[in-house]
Amino acid sequence: MATDFYERLISKYEPLTEAEFLTLVSVQEPILGAALPAKIAALTRGQLQLGMGTLFTNLHAMTQDYLIKESVDAHDQHSYVITGSGQAVLAAEANRLRLLSQICAEARV
């Protein structure tokens, strides 16, 4: 039953946008929402900076689809962490990207 759920989510999200992919990568450990833009900028060596609107739209949608869990502390700070469903979607996307990378290597692109 869980496998069907994961497969539906993978079908819905695959392929992930760069913003969705980087959001999932960034929340593999719990992180405050305010720290996410800097983490994504660091991951991409400053080549991609997500605006707060894009980032929080992704966080909201992924929270609704159970890819990410949101927690709010006593100071109203929101933190996010990936769920098992999110890990399944991220793993499927990583496999897809590995295939694309292999194709590029073989084609000498």
UniProtKB/TrEMBL annotation:
It comes from the Bacteria. It holds the Pfam family PadR. Residues 24-91 form the Transcription regulator PadR N-terminal domain. InterPro entries: Tscrpt_reg_PadR_N, WH-like_DNA-bd_sf, WH_DNA-bd_sf. Gene3D superfamilies: Winged helix-like DNA-binding domain superfamily/Winged helix DNA-binding domain. This is Helix-turn-helix transcriptional regulator. It comes from Lactiplantibacillus modestisalitolerans.
